[in-house]
Amino acid sequence: MSALSNHTRVTRLYRHSLKTMLSWAVQRDIFYTERDRIRAQFEANAGLNQPGQIAKAIAAGEAKLAEYSHPDPYTVPTAYGGSKYARNPPVPGEMEVVSDFGRESYVVPGKY
User: Fold this and answer.
1) Distance between CA atoms of 23 and 18, rounded to whole angstroms?
2) With a threshold of 0.70, does the pTM exceed it?
């Protein structure tokens, strides 16, 4: 398995940071403030160019993300693990959909 590039690791770290923050901040105005704070932390490290510094900053960010992980993270209701996942099971195979209801061959017109 090949190692991920630093750019990919930083991108994933940023996205996962925002998703984790969504689990903690229910109100959007609070989330937007925290989003800006997280973005500022990433921008502060954007100028790093030494491989050792970059690796250390990424490792510190991943450790901080693990520290702030939510014990009960938000899950989209229709996604796997959500409260609405598979709530409407598929129709059983023995069920039949009749497209021409009322015009079946055994129905006598005008009798009803």
Assistant:
1) 9
2) no
